[in-house]
Structures are given as C-alpha cells and as structure tokens.
Amino acid sequence: MDPAALQNLLDREAIRDVSLRYTRGIDRHDDALLLSAYHADAVDDHGAFIGSPDGFVEYANRVHGQNWVCHQHFVTNQVIDLDGEAAHCESYFMAVLKRPDGACDFVGGRYLDRMEKRDGRWAVADRICMVEWNVEAAPGGPALDPSMFVAGTWDRSDPSYVRPLRADRAPRDLSKG
C-alpha cells in the first residue's frame, strides 16, 4: 500500500476518534476524556460559551447538570479536509437532552473544527458550534420503563468503563407476563 494513502487513512481515523472522545466525554461528564479532544490553547465558540477547553468543560458540566437529567450527543456526517498536520472538519451533530419533567430537547447542527496534529496527536484547535434547529418533545406517549435497563452515570462508574464487560443480571423475559 502507498505510505501516503495509509497515513491519510490513519489521520482520518484519528480525527474521527477526536469526535467520539468529545461526545463520550461530554455525555459521561468525564473531564479528562472531554479535554483530550482539545489542544490546551484551543478556542471553543459554543454560542453561550466562548473560551478555553477548561472553561468549556466547567460550563458544559454545570449547564447540563442544571437543566437535564441525561443527554446524548451524536456525530453523524463528517467531512474531513486534510492539509498536512492540519485539517478542517465539518461534523453534523444531534443532541437529545432530557429535562427533569420528562420533556426532551432535540438539537441539531454542525461542529466546524480546525484540528491540528501536534506531537503525533490530533485534537481541536478551534471549534465553532452551529445550532441549526431545535425542538421540544413533551413527555407522554409510548415509553420504555427506564428501570428495566442498566442505568448510566456521569462518571467513571458508568458501565461503559467496566473491563471486562459482563452482562450479569438474572435472565428474564418480561413480555411473558
């Protein structure tokens, strides 16, 4: 294989990993993981917050904790324009955030990132978060009983950190009444 083509693939995968570390870090309130998506001198323009990665982590944890009981951030379509040790990325995102009253806020937009590879590590150098739509879904209607499922946490006690993962709850089939 062509070494340049291989490096291109490796860089693209490392950039995708930056996006996934960001979403997992923000949803688990894992400060170290979230910070690992940024270079220390990065700037994040997130609308209501514009500033450093450290400031953004504090802001995100505070705002998410004040307004919602759980949330999930998703990165979908992603365009990566590589230029040596820099890249410009456009990542579509969607976030679902559940309020204490059961209503959910749905938000969609794009992250526009300039990423840089420094000392072999890709991370965000500048980010602009663009919210392009949002909608509220009222509680009610068909819903799954959350108590049937393993509960997540906003820290490293979340089951996603357990190694090795074991599905060790007692067998059951609640559809059989």
Automatic annotation (TrEMBL):
Pfam families in the cross-refs: SnoaL_4
Annotated Gene3D superfamilies: 3.10.450.50
Annotated protein name in UniProt: SnoaL-like domain-containing protein
Organism: Novosphingobium hassiacum
Highest taxon in the source lineage: Bacteria
InterPro entries: NTF2-like_dom_sf (IPR032710), SnoaL-like (IPR037401)
Ranges where the SnoaL-like domain occurs: 8-127
